[in-house]
Specification:
Helix 2 (about 30-45) runs antiparallel to helix 3, helix 3 (about 50-70) packs antiparallel against helix 4 and helix 6 (about 130-160) crosses helix 7. The protein has helices at about 10-25, 30-45, 50-70, 90-115, 120-125, 130-160, 170-200, 215-240, 255-285; strands at about 80-85, 85-90, 245, 250-255. The chain is mostly helical and about 290 residues long.
């Protein structure tokens, strides 16, 4: 087994695409819980104690979405309590809980995707449309740069103001607008510099570029396994063997345990591969 970030870009894209399609299409709490568990497990084996921040964020996101849905949606027959003429139901709370799991799981997998797919891999995946690949990779690169630049602009303006931040609401709005204006000016200037630099270096989107990515036997096996398991899960869903009802009373109308287990195998693979890799390195360090 090999780690997720070492996979071929096609393998990585297939894994993330299948995960998000199943999460957003099935809207099933069992699949949402499996995906969230696997994503958190991967983060813990990958980042160690730093993953606790993501865990707390996930719990807060689930809590917020659950409460928000329970407050503004009042469908379902199981009434938890009543305020005035408004009934707060268990079904709306549980539906929000499921949506929170989907949101948290999707955000975690998107974070992992951002670390796995660098600009070179994106250009490789979209080599049939190099302009699209270039724009997409540049946007992903500009986002962290702009966040850092926004912080630099804010700190510079605070330093000019003796380190004092505005206190009145009107002053805060004006301060934020000025910072945003400076950031936009920087982004426009940066884009012009980038365009001139690419033109000076003779950039040609139609040029043929060598690629270091090769489909290995491991990648082919992984692709066949994921495609087969994913097709089985989707077929089970299309046949109506995977369905959860949230209202008026929540219950499992149909659940294919083999399909759920197949999804678990797909989702847990990054955790298992990373854990085995860590064990391997520890054994080698002990022998050395």
């Amino acid at each position: 087994m090999f780690k997720l970030e070492k996979m071929h870009p096609l393998s990585q894209l297939l894994f993330f695409a299948l995960t998000l399609i199943i999460l957003l299409t099935f809207n099933n709490p069992y699949f949402s819980a499996v995906s969230l568990f696997a994503a958190l497990a991967y983060l813990f084996v990958k980042n160690g104690k730093r993953a606790f921040k993501t865990l707390w964020f996930s719990l807060l996101a689930i809590l917020f979405v659950s409460v928000f849905n329970a407050v503004f949606a009042h469908y379902g027959d199981t009434v938890l309590f009543t305020l005035g003429k408004t009934n707060f139901t268990l079904e709306s709370l549980f539906y929000g809980f499921n949506q929170g799991c989907i949101v948290a799981s999707s955000l975690i997998w998107f974070t992992v995707l951002g670390k796995c797919l660098d600009s070179e891999r994106i250009i490789y995946l979209f080599r049939f449309s190099p302009k699209t690949a270039l724009i997409f990779s540049m946007v992903l690169g500009f986002i962290p740069r702009f966040i850092k630049k926004a912080g630099d602009i804010r700190e510079a303006r605070l330093a000019l103001n003796s380190g004092k931040s505005p206190e009145r609401f009107r002053e805060k709005v004006a301060f934020t607008v000025d910072n945003f204006s400076a950031l936009v000016s920087y982004s426009l200037e940066s884009s012009i510099i980038t365009a001139n630099s690419m033109e000076a270096r003779g950039y040609n989107c139609r040029a043929i570029r060598p690629s270091r990515f090769k489909l290995t036997a491991k990648d082919i096996i992984f692709l066949i396994a994921v495609i087969s398991l994913g097709a089985f899960i989707i077929v089970q869903f299309s046949l109506g063997n995977i369905k959860y009802v949230f209202e008026p009373v929540r219950y499992t109308k149909a659940l294919s345990l083999p399909a759920l287990f197949a999804f678990f195998i797909i989702e847990i693979y990054p955790f298992i591969s990373e854990a085995l890799e860590n064990v391997k390195w520890k054994l080698l360090s002990v022998k050395a």
